[in-house]
Amino acid sequence: MATNAATIMPKVSALVLSLFVDLCLFYASDLPLIRGVFGFFTRLWFVAALRFVAPTAVTLLILGDFKPRLIRFTATYSLLPAVLETGTQVLFREETPCVQRTDLRCWSLFAAASAAAALFWEVIVPDAEESDGEKREKQRSRVLFMRVLRLFRPDYPLLLGGLAFLSLAVLFEMFIPFYTGRVIDILGGRFQQSDFLSALVFMGLFSLGSSLSAGCRGGLFLCGISSFTCRMKFKLFEVLTRQEIKFFETTKTGEVTSRLSRDTTLMGRTVCLNVNVLLRTFVKTVGMISLMMNLSWKLTFLVLMETPVTGLLQNIYDTHHQRLTLAMQDSLALSSEAANEVVSGIRVIRSFKTEKHEANRYDDRLTDTRALKTRRDVVGAFYLLARRLTGLGMQVIMLYYGRLFIQSGQMTTGSLVSFIIYQSDLGDNIRTLTFIFGDMLNSVGAAGKVFEYLDRKPAVSTDGKLKPDQLKGRVSFQSVNFAYSAAPSNQSKTVLQDFSLELKPGQMTALVGPSGEGKSTCVSLLQRFYEPQDGEILLDDEPLRSYDHRFLHQKIAVVSQDPVLFSGSVRDNISYGFHGCSLDEIQEAAGKANAHEFIMKLQNGYDTEVGEGGGQLSKSEKQRIAIARALVRRPQVLVLDEITSSLDADSENQVQQALTRCPDRTLLVIAHKLRTVEAADQIVVMGGGRVEERGTHQQLMERKGSYYRLREQLFTENA
Ligand SMILES: Nc1ncnc2c1ncn2[C@@H]1O[C@H](COP(=O)(O)OP(=O)(O)OP(=O)(O)O)[C@@H](O)[C@H]1O
């Protein structure tokens, strides 16, 4: 109860005080002193402004804020008398009874009319109550917009040039209708050759100036936008390549490529073009209104009355259009995602013969997009119809009064023609000005997506600095716990549990265990693709994360079971990421990997192109190039993850020999071939995310533990 009173009292006080102030002003406006000082129209509009400002100030002082609906009501209420009087004077050359004496009935009438108008507005276009979230969203849009503008900084000279030409183009353009009117007047009145010629020359000059400036403006803006887009694409690509592996596993390829190609382009274009449109429209509108006022201020006021109606139409249209456009963008993204999936998985699709199914799936998504597009177009068509009808109605009224003004000698035919040409553009310009700011903020949606990636800090940091001159290569996993997803909501199981392992320099360790026990996960952790949730992985007693990223990957080299090659020559692929190595070093590494011979038989030897993803080579050849790529950096720790599965016995022997020839290197091998594992100095059997057994082949066989029991399951060839 007490709380209610506490909230109601300030509101009642604000209302009473505002009414009091307003009534004082209402009566004061009729004082002889005021009438004596101001002219008729000046007094009307001055009092209107005071009657808007005073109650607003009172309410603000008492309540501390001013709701939009209250602003609308106060504006209508204070301006209505001035608009009515001006309109009556202009159109009928009479005064209303209300202006002749201050009458409380007039005051009540205006108050009631404004209340009715405000009520009508509330019912037709109610204020969307802005939640905190929406306010934050708007604030965020503003910040994003300013950030995009700041990123344009290197292109400011181009943009400023564009703006200068923009202003020139608009100014020149504005004078063309004026001279059109003059030509008509000259033709319709007493024809004067010199006047006619000078009007034509000016018209021609202004047209030429406007076209040239518009061309330069467009060119400079487009250059600015394309330079910005290139910069953004590069920046984004750089940031993307630094992200951790998990990011790529959880983010769809379509989404990443769409940000790189579509959103970066959209971001520069929409923001830049919106600023362009805003400035152009502003300059044009101000210029047009002044020229129109010059031709006939009465007609200008009449024309401006159309603005609230078109504003309302635009508001309704924008709300629906934006909603449908967003839905369409999402739907388009889904379609391109479906297409991407098909292209990348075409082999699987072919082998399962699901081409028809995939085509239907794509078609379904296209149908959704089309339905949304149709709805958006229908809304657009209705809006266009309503806008045309309003415009047409206004033109009829304008022509009617224009004729009256010509008859009474207040205008010439030429001025009316000029006026009509200006008017045809004015509505569009005012509409654009009213809504462009909102549009500008909405257009940063794409920028928001790009910034989301640009600001993303990789979960696995790569800012270690350690680069020792000497590295022994001792690796130890110390009580490592790891799950692919650490989020409690995610049901992903723990892959490594209290896992400890020591890899010594000069020793070969074989990691064996049933499928899915976490062998490859150990390798991924060693490469720092992921960070363990608990425990530590040390290299020469220092945590892996403290090493310089490039140094670490040079010292720990991994050859995986499914190596990836990039398009380029064999030589490029072997020296990939290890710039400055000589052909001799490359050939030496290729020799150790048993690849030199087959490379020399290729058409261009080491300069032969391997095709996209190494598609022109066999699996074994790709594998051997990948081994050479690892060996060329002379790594201290070498990891071979099931490489022997795709090598023939001959290659396997050669590689094995080459690897054992380097006595200081730490070697970790994951293999399913007993022949490979037998040679290891230590065999580690994994089970349940832990080390179950360790020892040499001989020791483990004698122990008759899990290694002995599982050997049928562990190795592809029989023991
Ligand atoms: N990127 C990943 N995201 C989530 N889970 C994964 C990921 N990679 C592997 N796993 C899961 O982690 C577990 C261990 O996988 P890992 O590939 O390390 O086993 P593995 O012992 O090397 O198996 P294999 O001998 O078949 O290669 C499996 O249950 C697997 O499903």
UniProtKB/TrEMBL annotation:
Keywords: ATP-binding, Membrane, Nucleotide-binding, Peptide transport, Protein transport, Translocase, Transmembrane, Transmembrane helix, Transport. Gene3D superfamilies: ABC transporter type 1, transmembrane domain (1.20.1560.10), P-loop containing nucleotide triphosphate hydrolases (3.40.50.300). One of its GO terms (molecular function) is ATP binding. One of its GO terms (cellular component) is membrane. InterPro entries: AAA+_ATPase, ABC1_TM_dom, ABC1_TM_sf, ABC_transporter-like_ATP-bd, P-loop_NTPase, Type_1_exporter. It holds the Pfam family ABC_membrane. It is a multi-pass membrane protein. It comes from the Eukaryota. It is found in: Endomembrane system. The chain crosses the membrane at residues 44-63, 156-179, 199-225, 380-401. Residues 160-442 form the ABC transmembrane type-1 domain. PROSITE patterns: ABC_TM1F, ABC_TRANSPORTER_2. Residues 475-713 form the ABC transporter domain. Belongs to the ABC transporter superfamily. ABCB family. MHC peptide exporter (TC 3.A.1.209) subfamily. This is Antigen peptide transporter 2a. The gene is tap2a.
